[in-house]
Amino acid sequence: MHRLLTGILLVGGVGLLILGVQATNAFMADVSRFFTSSPTDKGIWMILGGTVAALAGFTMTMQRARQR
Asked: Is 6 inside a domain boundary?
């Protein structure tokens, strides 16, 4: 069960990071950035969520490896 949760966090986190970066580089994000001079909230939240999930999965992996 621990491996499954760790894998889901790692893969999901990396996936969210990729989607977040793509969302911030999308055409509509460029239009929004032109008028507001800030990136879209959706892209930022996806990047932040992906970073937290990936770090949590990585930390759990390292703790598991240290216990062995």
From this structure: no
7 assigned to some structural domain: no
Segment 34-48, tens digit of pLDDT: 888 887 888 899 999
Collapsed DSSP state (helix, strand, coil) of residue 55: helix
- Out of 6-10, 13-17, 32-36, 41-45, least confident range: 32-36
Distances (CA, A) of 14 to 17, 19, 41: 5, 9, 18
The whole-angstrom separation of Cα 48 and Cα 67 is 29
Q: What's the domain range around 46? A: 12-67
In a domain, 47, yes or no: yes
Q: How many structural domains does the chain have? A: 1
d(CA 27, CA 18): 16
